[in-house]
Amino acid sequence: MLQINVTKTLSSFTFAFNQEITCQGITAILGVSGSGKSTLINLLNGLLQPDNGIIKLNDTTLVDTTSNQFVPAQRRHIGTVFQDPLLFPHYTVRKNLHYGLHKAMVTRFDEIIQVLNISHLLHRYPAMLSGGEKQRVAIGRALLTNPQLLLMDEPLSALDMPRKKELIHYIQHLVNEINIPIIYVTHNINEVKKLANNVAIIDQGKLYDYGETDAILQSDYLQHWL
Ligand SMILES: Nc1ncnc2c1ncn2[C@@H]1O[C@H](COP(=O)(O)OP(=O)(O)OP(=O)(O)O)[C@@H](O)[C@H]1O
User: Does the C-beta of 136 come closer than 6 Å to ligand 1?
Assistant: First the structure.
């Protein structure tokens, strides 16, 4: 369970989110540009500190402003995959994957690279990969840190249509094969339909609605998107 009850003001933008999220399968965070999706991701992974509130992941308190608790990003056991895969250009894929490799994941290395179909890329450098391949390596690297939760911030947006379809297939595969909850940020309803079990809609920095995908897709708010 991911419990989030936070506020954060960034210049003239105020973000306020209060919801308990079931940490199972994929939860999509859906909203138009500037609604606050990345702000939420950065509050969860520890890149941003809320002005007020708490964030709890299962039994662990990550943030509690009343008791000045703030677990730094590197100790949160949360992996993040960004829009642009951030790989070390001077490291091979294998070395990129070993960066941050958790000892508990050493025995799962082969399984993860097989699920993501990157075994044949281990000796290459990032410059020798397509955008979709780079993103699969970035997902593999995030998983190999042994996170309790994986955050994906618009992971398909830099890809062309065929690569988008391909990566959607790998993300679906990942959820079936490796039991890890994913928070998936997007402004694309088709991605939500294909991937998400639950959806949270964010509008102007506020949570507008949260629930199972089928129910949320019926909401009046989304009718002009469809
Ligand atoms: N460090 C900052 N300082 C001031 N304003 C900020 C800062 N970071 C974000 N904002 C503002 O907060 C608002 C929400 O930004 P955010 O990046 O969370 O939106 P988003 O929904 O992820 O947008 P997009 O889909 O375009 O990435 C925007 O108006 C943005 O300009």
Answer: no
| Encoded tokens for 178 | 């490796």
User: How far apart (Å, rounded) are the C-alpha atoms in residues 153 and 62?
Assistant: 20
Residue 18, token pair as written in the block: 């209060």
Q: Measuring from atom 7 of ligand 1, which residue has the nearest CA?
A: 10
Residues 13-68: pLDDT tens digits? 999 999 999 988 999 999 999 999 999 999 999 999 999 999 999 999 999 999 99
Residue nearest to atom 6 of ligand 1 (CA): 10
Beta bridge partners of 201: 30, 209
Q: Which domains are assigned to the chain?
A: 2-223 (3.40.50.300)
Q: How far is C-alpha 65 from the geometric centre of its chain's CA atoms? A: 24
ipTM higher than threshold 0.90? yes
The region of weakest confidence among 92-106, 112-126, 130-144, 157-171 is 157-171
For helices 131-143 and 161-177, angle between their N-to-C axes, nearest 10 degrees: 20
Ligand 1 atom nearest to CA at 41 = 18
Ligand 1: atom nearest CA of 36 is 18
Please list, in sequence order, all residues whose beta carbon lies within 8 angstroms of the beta carbon of residue 35, skipping any fewer than 6 positions away.
202, 203, 204, 205
Residue with tokens 């909850």: 181
Distance in angstroms (rounded) separating the CA atoms of residues 209 and 39: 17
- Atom of ligand 1 at shortest range from CA of 187: 25
Residue nearest to atom 30 of ligand 1 (CA): 34
Cβ of 34 below 6 Å from ligand 1? yes
The protein residue whose alpha carbon is closest to atom 10 in ligand 1 is 10
